[in-house]
Amino acid sequence: MSEIADLIGQASAGKARAVVLIEGDEYLARTSARELAEAIVPSRERALNLIVLDAAAGAREIASHLVTVGMFAAPKVIVVEGADAFAEEVDAERELTRVRELWQARRQRDAARRLLKLVRPAGWGAADVALGSKTGASAAKWRKDVGAAPDESDKGWLRELSSWALAQNVVAPPDDLDVLVQAVERGLPPKTHLILVAESLPPKHPLVRLAQDKGAHVRRRAERRGRTIDTLDISPLVADELGPLKKRLARDAELELKNRLGDDLRLIASELRKLALYTGDRAQITREDVEAVVAPIREEEFFALAEAIGEGDVAKALQLFADELRRKANASAVALPFLGGVELGYNEFQAKLFPALETELSAKKQKVPHPFAAWLGYKRARRRPRASWRRALIRCAEVDFDLKNGADPRLSMERLLLEVCGK
Asked: Which domains does the chain have, with CATH numbers?
């Protein structure tokens, strides 16, 4: 496994690898790909010899760029972002997020092709993706047929994308990954390089084998040693953003930053740059700086809280509640999700029960949980009798009433957690 710093050093010395696959967190992987590409292609030649594509362009179009000899003698690099699209099974939630980002970045063709490829197995076309229109599928149908559902806030741009794709006659690219693999295996033109960016690909995927055989495979990921946000390791990101500026991030400032922002690395990087400007000539960024500059936007990790309750782990539940108190100073904002019923396999649960749950919550304008998270909660609920969950729900209603009538939020919620966890 190569390190990105080594690859950039080799590229700067004129010894760049022909094929590089960078896997990991979207922000870190994409940033590393751009840095590597810029180390290969001189700045004066980048307008013509540095080409950035989304994988939605399709393997055939990417291959055509690779086999076309550069106009000048300088090195040529093709950067392919979102290579996860070439996996046989894709994460529908992640793909939908990527489509949203592409559309907001005004990369309409890439966004349309990527979305149409996502919905193609369901037999959908451009007209079907216009959420909320007469021809568009409902959110429940999205979840059932595609595996992910857009939010209500997505209606506007999805309708725009649908109309644009219909007007431009855009279709999903064919599944012809072999064309790309064969083009690389035959040998690329001199000084031509391929950089692939993906969050995650199966270990035996053709692109993984191709990178390992023809070049290098790199992972750029912020490791998380536990479930809570304080275990997220952002040291590589801090080094990238603050190292060149000769600044440091205090330990308590790092914890406060993660508590306020969560694990959105792109946002963390942006706030680090803002903090660097705010601190001026000071070498260290303190917790007070973070509190002064960074707005708290992270939502509490309700999945971890629900899991702690389901396992009866009162210590973890209280710790998560304390974390939320530090961030919001509002104990009554903590919600405890409870699920009950008989245990089902994930596929059966998703097919038979989840669409009804989604329809009910959508009608009430409540947030719909991810189906896999809901299923895990469903399984945990099976370990305790229904009577226990009925009592817990009653106590939740009673505490809710007490809070609305002036009861102490922290004391009430801590007592509730103790009772629900059976302590």
From this structure: 1-221 (3.40.50.300), 229-293 (1.10.8.60), 302-420 (1.20.272.10)
